[in-house]
Amino acid sequence: MLAAACRIFALLVPVVASILWAFAVLAAEPTPTKFSPAQLPAQSSPSPLPVTPLEAAYSARAGEPLRQFGYGLFAPAGDATAGIGAAPGAIQGNYVLNTGDALLVTLRGQKSYSKRFTIDRNGQLVVDDLRPLTAAGLTLDTLRQELAALVTATWPGTEAFASLAEVRRIGVLVTGAVHRPGRQEISAFATVLDALSAAGGVERSGSLRTVRLMRAGGSVTVDLYALQIAGAAGNADVPLHDGDRLFIPPLGATVAVAGPVKRPGIYELLPSGNPLSAMELRDLAGGSLRPGRGRFLRFGIGPAGEETAEEITDADARRFGDGDLLMFAPQREDRRGEVRLEGHVLRPGPRAWTKETTLEGLLSRADLLPGPYLPFAALESTTPATAERSLRPVDLSAVLKGRDRRRLAEGDTLFVLGASDIDFLTSEPVLDLLRGERQPPQDACPGLVALARILAAEPDGPLATGPQARAAATLTGARTPCPPVFTTVPDLLPLALGHSVLRLTGVPRPGFYPIAGGLEAGTETAGARETIVESDAPHYELIGHVRRPGTRRLVAGTTLRKALADGKALKRDVYPLLGIVERYDRRTLIRAYLPFSPQEVAAGRADRGLADGDRIHLFAADDIRSLVKSGPPGTEAAADSESEPPMLAALLDPAIVAVVGERTVQVRGAVRDPGGYPLADRTPLASLVAAAGGLSADADPAAAELTEANGMRSGVDLARDATRPIAPGDALRINPRPQALEARAVSIEGAVRRPGRYDIGRGETLSSLIARAGGLMDDAYPAGAIVTRESERRREKEQFQRQARELERSLALEVEKGEPVKAENVALARQLAAQLRGAEPLGRVVVEADPAVLRTRRDLDPLLEPDDRILIPKRPLTVAVSGEVLHPTAAQFVSGKTAEDYLDEAGGTTRDADTGRSFLILPDGRARPLALSSWNHRVDVIPPGSILVVPRDPHPFDGLDATKAIGNILSQLAITAASVSVITR
């Protein structure tokens, strides 16, 4: 058991030590420098690079934007030095050490520590308590071997490990056309590309093809194009030496490539000045976007500055030099050998064309979507005489029956219409234009724009003065959205209207229906065709969620019940509580909206006689729910809705939408689908609850509450008052039963007899949970019980976030005041803020968990919350010592030992320790200060399972106003780490 306890608390040592060691490593950085506001990270993303005069000149000549190639190779100026050089973890054992390299030396055994040492100017590595090692010129593997031999000889049984903590820096002078010329401090692994990135990259006025690397013994030329085009690094990956110089000369001769190529742009020529061919330039730009032969056009600058154009017939002739522009274009970009089938079909798109292709061969019934409109389609073809595209009507039923076998020409397109396309011919936007409104709405589709243009251009034409315009004055249109086919082919809308007849009966909706077999209205023989199809017999119309919508003949004695066929004409998901009869009185010119209950009519408990011209509106249940949730236009619900208005509101007459809103009853509480439910009239309570999906499992039928429209409120028993009528405007609330159990469970683990998850009731306490879990084991340690809670975790997380913000705010204030702040202090503060934001507290709650104490002190028995986690550990036999001590350890617990005794067993404190802020973490999670200084409070008893923490002195933060908070922050992180160590064992 002692060994197990040691392993448990040993987990704490590396967690706390790693937090404190991070500050020790950062504090050992080189000589401090002053910090300025310019070193703060940028708060906004970099803006796009401005256009250079060279790019503007070429772009104007080409008629398209062209940018200089290759300059995106370098990181933005704010990130130029990010990632330069190899990371220490990636360095191989054959790396040759030299002055300035830093190594992390770790000893384990008789002597234990982990420290960082730097190879000095004499090339020696001086490790504490060891003789100096000559490290300069040795490989990393050789140094490890010599260090291991030296440590073994000095301390038998001690292992030595060495890794490269930081690569030495070298100085390279970068001059010429770079953003930040001057001496650049870079890694010893850096290449030419790294040095240029450190200098901010090459300016676009500088050359990428003649970068010169100069060092003792000569110079070499680096071509960065080879790296970007062919992936050949060449001299670009040559390792640099200390004292090397890089010079970037001005930009040389340039050419540009424009057109459908993969990489259009401006390219620098080789310094040799040899001209290039059109093929070489096209390949330099990545090749053309599509295969096939192309045309090359050269735009050159003459001696006097004039620009000349030249067709290049020999693509291999070297004709392109400084200032030339190549315009590339494929010889042909059209498509051959196709006809198209579009619109209301399963697979719209191109079809293969042969000289024998006919309309009959292009289309079959298997190609059509459900509900095609067969009397009319449109064929778009090219007129040979004028080469213009034109539309002609097609009788689709004749094509399907084999009576229309006309041949198709290459490029023809057949457009098939559906029922929704035909409905749009009688929509309100179309009717408004036919009634005389010549300006379409601002968001009108191209089809409406084309119709408005024809009506305005031909005010005496067939559409503006014909039967369609006269009929529009008496029609009521739907508010349907514009179908895509009239957006793709705008002229199809006027064509369909011009071939339409007005049908008032025998169709789902009175309106315009195009017929391909007749003549256009307005022609000299138009009178020979029937343009209005209407019966004088009385009729009524079924609209909406019925099996067979449309007009019906009205015979004597027809009622709502007969029209709905005793409910058989209704669809299964029809809304049962409200339908509307729209009635127009031709004598008084008044339109009335008469509500009725489809459920009551189908059951035979209600009925109404019908009149000539009645329109019976039935709704789907889902449509009514969406309409009521969004609210009628102009209401508060509609204003608060974040979603688009439902499609039903766009299709219905606003008056009908208003009737639905006026007759709504709100149902709240324990029903499956709470919300608003419109009623026709006084409706039984049971019917309303059924429409709301019925009662939920937690409903209390005897505790319902009814608030009437006049403000009176009364209790309702759903079982006793099922037939009580509910009127429009009332509100019904179904109360749930009181919950006996919490919605979630808690878990108890560790030294209990039956660990696991337990459902808890309201008011459940820790003592009752321990009893349900069988009580504590004999070796349980209730003094170290750990209770974690989600609400407390969130509070601690917010506290850490707030402390991080305060730390950053204090730093910013110091900078704004102009106070001198060391750069390494700024880095330390930022890292601390990042650690605070990334810390994940457990939300530990300090509680009393000893059942014997809880039996006598009920006031100490904590109430449980859902998702609480309780861990009862076994009795430990150690006290952990961590932080700024020479050897963090888990010392054996002995009654009466003081904090100084435990610190002595850990080798004592280091020189960086802040003994005045030392503290003790007790087994139950509380923290108390230790008496390691004369002024501090004394802890008399150190129980087993405690953790003694000696934090680091926050002296690196001298000069910051936030210094006083650093010690507290480190303490909180250490407490969090300790909790993690214990809870995850």
UniProtKB/TrEMBL annotation:
Domain Capsule biosynthesis GfcC-like C-terminal per the UniProt entry, residue ranges: 890-954
Domain Soluble ligand binding: start-end pairs: 665-716, 746-789
Membrane topology label: Multi-pass membrane protein
Main location: membrane
Cell compartment(s), UniProt: Cell outer membrane
Top-level taxon in the UniProt lineage: Bacteria
Domain Polysaccharide export protein N-terminal: residue ranges: 92-150
Similarity comment: Belongs to the BexD/CtrA/VexA family.
A family per Pfam: Poly_export
Name of the protein: SLBB domain-containing protein
Segments forming a coiled coil: 790-817
Signal peptide from the UniProt entry: 1-27
Boundaries of every SLBB domain copy: 172-247
Keywords: Cell outer membrane, Coiled coil, Ion transport, Lipoprotein, Membrane, Palmitate, Polysaccharide transport, Porin, Signal, Sugar transport, Transmembrane, Transmembrane beta strand, Transport
Entry keyword Metal-binding: no
